[in-house]
Amino acid sequence: MPPNTATAGSVPENYDRYLGPLLFEPYAEDIANKIRGKKYKNVLELACGTGRVTRHLRRVLPPDTKLVATDSHADMLKVASESMPNENINWQTADAQELMFADESFDLVICQFGLMFVTDKMKAMSEAFRVLKRGGIFIFNTWDKIENNEVIYLGNQIICSYFPEKPPSFYRVPFSLCQLDQLETWLVAAGFRNIKVEGVEKEGTSPSAKEAAIGMVEGNPIYGLIIEKDPKLVVVIRTAVEQKIAAAFGSHPLKSPLKAWVVEATK
């Protein structure tokens, strides 16, 4: 998530609890399956957030693999580390654009839905290249356009309708990095080769439309904007989102199609 005062307090917990199963768990499993059975000695995860991918990585990697999980937000790392207190994971606050690790430190670098929030994406890719050993692998994913992730598209329309003069821009960012030619251009410029891009469609599931609505309204920086406008609007907007997405995708459970791009490149 991008820097914002609204990521403090309950927002990271809501982000993980309510958006995690719906949006991130299916793709966390997908990334883990790509490395299952393979041996890596040193693995770095960028933008690990609340640890959705980290948990799967620790399960599929050999026990003696050194796993470093990083994020630029200490409050997100806190949620992640507290959910896995006894795991062999090195948690560190780090900026993907300015990594503190030495050249050629890792066999594998992973980043799930994080590059969209990085200001200088070319710099982040160059840093991933720098810390990888020769022959190392960089795997990351990024959302396809928001229209192809329908539950978020619909929920965002409802939220924005309550801000007619200046609609919140948060949901534009996660779905802003879907130009495949641009991704490949950056990767080649950073030095990567054997670039593979795959469109991966999944079904996102939430136990209920209400829980999905809580995540969309109270699990990201939009929550702070609503509070600033009028705290009473939180329940109003959340209810409106719940009703709309329940009508489209079901109430108990809610199921919605998702689409993302998964990229693999070699140093």
Describe, in short, the structure shown.
The protein has 267 residues and is an alpha/beta fold. It has a single domain, classed as Rossmann fold. It is 42% helix and 23% strand.
Q: Could you name the key traits of this structure?
A:
267 residues, alpha/beta, Rossmann fold, 9 helices, 42% helix, globular, disordered N terminus
Description:
This protein has one domain: Vaccinia Virus protein VP39 (Rossmann fold). The chain has a seven-stranded mixed beta sheet, sandwiched between helices. The protein has helices at residues 11-35, 52-60, 74-83, 121-131, 150-161, 180-190, 209-218, 222-229, 233-249, and strands at residues 42-46, 66-71, 89-93, 106-112, 132-143, 193-206, 254-266. The protein is α/β, with parallel strands linked by helices. The two termini are 27 Å apart. It has nine helices and seven strands, in the order αβαβαββαβααβαααβ. Residues 1-9 have low confidence and may be disordered.
Question: What is the topology?
Answer:
Blueprint: H1 11-35, E1 42-46, H2 52-60, E2 66-71, H3 74-83, E3 89-93, E4 106-112, H4 121-131, E5 132-143, H5 150-161, H6 180-190, E6 193-206, H7 209-218, H8 222-229, H9 233-249, E7 254-266
Parallel strand pairs: 1-2, 1-4, 2-3, 4-5
Antiparallel strand pairs: 5-7, 6-7
Helix pairs in contact: 1-2, 1-7, 4-6, 5-9, 7-9
